[in-house]
Specification:
Elements: E1 2-4, H1 10-21, H2 36-43, E2 47-52, E3 58-67, E4 70-78, H3 83-92, E5 99-104, H4 108-116, E6 120-131, H5 132-135, E7 145-148, H6 153-163, H7 175-182, E8 187-194, E9 197-207, E10 212-220, H8 229-242, E11 249-255, H9 259-268, E12 271-281
Parallel strand pairs: 4-5, 10-11
Antiparallel strand pairs: 1-2, 2-3, 3-4, 5-12, 6-11, 6-12, 7-8, 8-9, 9-10
Helix pairs in contact: 3-4
């Protein structure tokens, strides 16, 4: 039976989330919560559904939360339940808005259920990882270049705009948004400067709990490519992360169409560690 999640379902849902954690091929976008209080807090802004048997045991969990121009599916996480039915019910809660979902490439069962529910795969994002000390030896600015750890918003946005259309979500940031982001304790910016102007930048988010730094963006101006700036920025980012004793690895990501980034990470010594497929169901109006 597919029904709204109840407080009494919390232990079963947490057990499902831990079951998902036990095997990489079960991974889906899901709550970070692993305690009852955290789960209740995350569910406040979501529509949470469960698949329960006649005895009330929860076999599956799924939630719908606001995301971008529509909603995102959290889950489904299901151990022997009615996955397709759970997803179909969740999609109905989108009320015609675009529906996004993220699932491990190897999670065949959930991928099939997503497609039954009307979602279409858009692209695959591959993640790469390496120990920081493998990357830091090349961490030096080329002759005639300097390193800056901050940029005026106009310069950042100009380079951001020129480097990658897929990053358009930041182009409408107000000054206060930009200021707030780069004053976060877990965010670092490393810009490579030539003659007083940025030729590229690397942006990090520090995840001390996971002992890693995530390379969230790496940008080189199109007119400056082919000079090794990408490899330099990657090494400089690793060196910045290595100043934090709790961090051990650097993780980067690239979509399946980003051949240059994928080649850069491989040449630098990063190795593939996970692949996530992005799914979308367009709004009913567009359909």
């Amino acid at each position: 039976m597919i029904r709204p999640m109840q407080t009494t379902d919390t232990p079963d849902v947490l057990a499902l989330l831990n079951w998902m954690d036990d095997a990489p091929h079960r991974e889906v976008f899901a709550p970070d919560a692993r305690t009852a209080d955290e789960l209740h807090l995350e569910c406040e802004d979501s529509t949470c559904l469960v698949d329960a048997d006649d005895e009330g045991n929860v076999l599956g969990y799924c939630a719908v939360s606001p995301f971008r121009d529509g909603v995102v599916i959290e889950g489904p996480v299901s151990e022997g339940g009615h996955t397709a039915a759970l997803l179909t019910r969740a999609v109905a809660h989108a009320e015609g808005l675009p529906v996004y979902a993220f699932c491990a490439l190897d999670n065949v069962a959930v991928r099939e259920a997503l497609e039954v529910a009307g979602l279409t795969p858009m692209h695959t994002t591959d993640f790469y990882s390496a120990p920081l000390q493998r990357l830091t030896p090349a961490a030096r600015a080329p002759d005639g270049h300097t390193i800056s750890r901050q940029l005026p918003q106009a310069e950042y946005m100009a380079l951001y705009r020129a480097s990658e259309d897929g990053w358009a979500g930041r182009l409408d940031w107000a000054p206060e948004d930009y200021h707030a982001h780069f004053h976060r304790d877990d965010v670092r910016l490393i810009a490579l400067m030539k003659e007083g102007r940025p030729v590229g930048f690397a942006e990090l988010e520090l995840n001390t709990e996971a002992t890693r730094a995530d390379l969230t963006y790496l940008a080189v101006h199109p007119a400056e490519r082919g000079q090794g700036y990408g490899r330099t920025l990657l090494a400089l980012a690793a060196a910045e992360a290595d100043t934090h004793p709790a961090l051990r690895t650097l993780r980067a990501r690239a979509h399946d169409h980003a051949r240059a980034a994928r080649a850069l990470y491989t040449r630098a010594g990063l190795t593939p560690c996970r692949s996530i497929v992005t799914y979308l169901k367009d709004s009913e109006e567009e359909a």
